[in-house]
Amino acid sequence: MVEVLGQLAELGITPKASGNKLLVAPGSKVPIDLFAQVKKYKTEIIERLGSGIGIPSGYSEWPKAQVEVAEAINEKFGITDPVHRRYNVLALVQGYFQDQGENHGHRHEAVKQDQIRLSEILESRGIG
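^ that's the sequence the OP posted. Answer follows.
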């Protein structure tokens, strides 16, 4: 199921739960074979969206599915540096919050400030 979320993220597709429905935007970008996998894991994906259960330390306020997708992408590209990994998670989570219209308030500011701080660290290392 994490692989399916990772493939969606790579294609720039955002999953969103609406009750017992799973919406993917933009839906037109979902290949037929991936759509079948999304359909297969629909219930699990809906349960993970917005859930704080099982999120690594420091991610408890973030949507679980987005964290898992970011971690799957980190794994796929062999990113082991914890700063780089967290920056990637923050980027995906911030995009999710913006898609939800939550680009203000405490949670948004915390993500934004952490992302700026990590960006400076990565730039000082020549990454970025």
